[in-house]
């Protein structure tokens, strides 16, 4: 596959893009509801972000500036691979600056820098169904969503507290959207959950293998599930970044030797770099 | 001191270059041509076409070469290519009764109109390594029949059908759903289930079929007929007002006759399972027929025994090897962020547990 000219702008044909855009419109109209869509086989494997890639492809215009992150970083291998895919197939400008990007495709993180109106966040989603590990059958979970029958989830969270003294979910922490649908925010750490609430950016979620799209329109109410006496806490490692000194950013733990040595650094590489540049 | 993990782009490029070199292997050994793969690795080509859902032996051979013989990777290449192709038109239904058969056997009747043709099968070979092949020996030509295959090859199950001993296969002009163009919705009708099974992973479908034979959703199957051969594919050209043949494809078709004792709604009658696959892929076609039959419990008024092969949602959600391998292998991708969140959680839970233990002591 040398001549990418043989493919349409952003790889997908226009009919497929239209089909995805229709699903996106429906998803925006019913925040948090999982819309089935006819996901295509993409030239990267399922599990590598095929849902996010299809959503990005359907949203991209030649004037867009794209940022792609994986684990918060612009230079992880899969982020590099997806960014290159769109550089080759769409020729769009790319950026690492959260503020400059019009579309940000992400796996597992929401950037630290505040998002703005007009920006689109595209999340890669492995398992879109927040009830999946409580009830494996799709036929059953669809019924539960239709009836807003979320008792099973409440019981699970309660059992966590009974057993561990806290809700034992650290990422992909379930949220309730506009008081109606329980939604999986994708496997972002729960630290990032508050960033979804009342965000000025449009947030789109694509699950390729599971053939689902869902969305949070700008300024949507997104509450992390909790109990009055066990309120939700957005936790992170209790350290500052060892490179830039940030205390409010999500941190990766890096093992530095075999003597138990470790440091903590920002998971959002663009955020960390801009703070280092500001200090100089 | 910590050095940020940079250079992902260069690592990827170098990995690709290394992969290409490994694919080629020792340059002192002549390179395989795709024609050689197509002609001499035919059953691999057939599997790639069947599970890739694209009938093109040359592209399947190319995919096998590019994938270094990893058939699931080759199927993936074909699927990714197939999905970009425009749908120009749908063919008229292929008439497998008009198949030019190279193999046709029935396990239920000793003889039937059209006869039995063993064809090119491993069935009665002794599985002894043929060391002569190490020396690239040429094979003598196989004898050919004096008369060509019989003109008329009616489906063997139609004889049972005539006597009302087997359930009727009711024809339908309903256009079948297209799994590759609409999201899978459950419950699925039989046409959609068959579509999923025919492109499903051979190993997975085989395992499920085997499980029905061992009692997990047992429906005791006889191979009523297994036929392999080529069928013409025709399309209707509206401007011409008639259909035009656009080529031949090789197909394997398996019809099973299954035991059935009757139920609240049905008189005792044999029932059917059906398998149809691209190329000579008979293990797959037979497996497909058994699983098809197991999945039909509801319409036949049978009990759901909880067997995996009866469970439509379980079977259809997990039979696609491209979906399965993608999701399985994606756990190789970095998960630092989620793992970090888990680390924080387990540390805090453990700290709380130690604190309460100390308080108790």
From TrEMBL, chain A:
A biological process term (GO) from this entry: organic phosphonate catabolic process
Listed EC numbers: 4.7.1.1
Swiss-Prot/TrEMBL keywords: 4Fe-4S, Iron, Iron-sulfur, Lyase, Metal-binding, S-adenosyl-L-methionine
A GO term for molecular function: 4 iron, 4 sulfur cluster binding
Pfam families recorded: PhnJ
Keyword Protein biosynthesis attached: no
Catalyzed reactions per annotation: alpha-D-ribose 1-methylphosphonate 5-phosphate + AH2 + S-adenosyl-L-methionine = alpha-D-ribose 1,2-cyclic phosphate 5-phosphate + methane + 5'-deoxyadenosine + L-methionine + A + H(+)
InterPro entries: PhnJ (IPR010306)
Family, as annotated: Belongs to the PhnJ family.
The protein's role, per its UniProt record: Catalyzes the breakage of the C-P bond in alpha-D-ribose 1-methylphosphonate 5-phosphate (PRPn) forming alpha-D-ribose.
Name by which UniProt lists this protein: Alpha-D-ribose 1-methylphosphonate 5-phosphate C-P lyase
Species of origin: Paracoccus litorisediminis
Automatic annotation (TrEMBL), chain B:
UniProt cross-references to Pfam families, sorted A to Z: PhnI (PF05861)
MF terms in GO: lyase activity
GO term, biological process aspect, one: organic phosphonate metabolic process
Keywords, alphabetical: Lyase
Top-level taxon in the UniProt lineage: Bacteria
Name of the featured protein: Carbon-phosphorus lyase complex subunit PhnI
Originating organism: Paracoccus litorisediminis
């Amino acid at each position: 596959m040398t001549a990418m000219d043989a493919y349409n702008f952003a790889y997908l044909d226009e009919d497929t893009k239209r089909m995805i855009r229709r699903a996106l419109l429906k998803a925006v109209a019913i925040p948090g509801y999982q819309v089935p869509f006819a996901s295509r086989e993409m030239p990267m494997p399922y599990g590598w972000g095929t849902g996010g890639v299809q959503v990005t492809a359907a949203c991209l215009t030649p004037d867009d500036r794209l940022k792609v992150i994986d684990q918060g970083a612009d230079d992880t291998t899969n982020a590099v691979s997806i960014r290159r895919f769109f550089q080759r197939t769409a020729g769009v400008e790319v950026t690492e600056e959260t503020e400059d990007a019009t579309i940000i495709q992400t796996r597992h993180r929401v950037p630290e820098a505040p998002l703005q109106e007009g920006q689109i966040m595209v999340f890669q989603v492995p398992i879109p169904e927040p009830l999946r590990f409580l009830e494996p059958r799709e036929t059953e979970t669809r019924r539960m969503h239709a009836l807003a029958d979320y008792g099973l989830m409440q019981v699970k969270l309660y059992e966590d507290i009974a057993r561990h003294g806290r809700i034992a979910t650290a990422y992909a922490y379930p949220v309730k959207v506009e008081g109606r649908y329980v939604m999986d925010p994708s496997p972002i750490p729960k630290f990032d959950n508050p960033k979804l609430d009342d965000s000025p950016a449009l947030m789109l979620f694509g699950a390729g293998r599971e053939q689902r799209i869902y969305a949070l329109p700008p300024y949507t109410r997104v509450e992390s599930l909790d109990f009055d006496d066990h309120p939700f806490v957005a936790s992170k490692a209790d350290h500052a970044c060892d490179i830039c000194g940030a205390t409010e950013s999500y941190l990766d733990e890096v093992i530095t030797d075999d003597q138990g040595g470790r440091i903590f650094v920002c998971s959002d590489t663009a955020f960390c770099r801009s703070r280092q540049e500001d200090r100089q | 001191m910590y050095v940020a993990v940079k250079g992902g782009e260069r690592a990827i490029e170098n990995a690709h270059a290394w992969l290409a070199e490994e694919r080629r292997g020792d340059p002192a050994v002549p390179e395989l041509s795709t024609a050689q793969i197509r002609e001499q690795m035919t059953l691999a080509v057939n599997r790639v076409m069947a599970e890739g859902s694209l009938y093109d032996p040359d592209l399947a051979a190319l995919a096998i070469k590019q994938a270094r013989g990893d058939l699931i990777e080759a199927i993936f290449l074909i699927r990714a290519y197939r999905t970009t192709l425009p749908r120009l038109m749908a063919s008229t239904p292929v008439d497998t009764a008009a198949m030019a058969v190279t193999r046709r056997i029935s396990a239920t009747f000793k003889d039937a109109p059209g006869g039995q043709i063993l064809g090119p099968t491993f069935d009665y070979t002794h599985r002894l390594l043929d060391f002569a092949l190490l020396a690239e020996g040429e094979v003598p030509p196989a004898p050919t029949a004096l008369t060509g295959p019989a003109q008329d090859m009616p489906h063997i199950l139609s004889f049972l059908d005539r006597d009302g001993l087997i359930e009727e296969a009711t024809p339908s002009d309903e256009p079948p759903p297209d799994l590759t163009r609409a999201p899978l919705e459950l419950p699925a009708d039989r046409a959609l289930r068959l579509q999923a099974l025919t492109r499903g992973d051979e190993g997975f479908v085989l395992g499920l079929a085997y499980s029905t034979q061992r009692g997990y959703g047992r429906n005791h199957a006889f191979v009523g007929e297994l036929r392999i051969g080529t069928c013409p594919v025709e399309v209707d050209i509206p401007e011409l007002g008639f259909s035009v043949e656009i080529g031949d494809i090789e197909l394997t078709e398996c019809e099973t006759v299954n035991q059935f004792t009757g139920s609240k709604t049905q008189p005792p009658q044999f029932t059917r399972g059906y398998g149809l696959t691209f190329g000579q892929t008979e293990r797959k076609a037979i497996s497909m027929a058994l699983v098809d039959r197991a999945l039909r419990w509801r319409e036949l008024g049978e009990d759901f025994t909880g067997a995996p092969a009866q469970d439509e949602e379980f079977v259809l959600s997990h039979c696609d090897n491209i979906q399965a391998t993608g999701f399985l292998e994606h756990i190789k991708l970095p998960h630092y962020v989620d793992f970090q969140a888990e680390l924080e959680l387990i540390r805090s839970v453990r700290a709380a547990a130690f604190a309460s233990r100390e308080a108790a002591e």
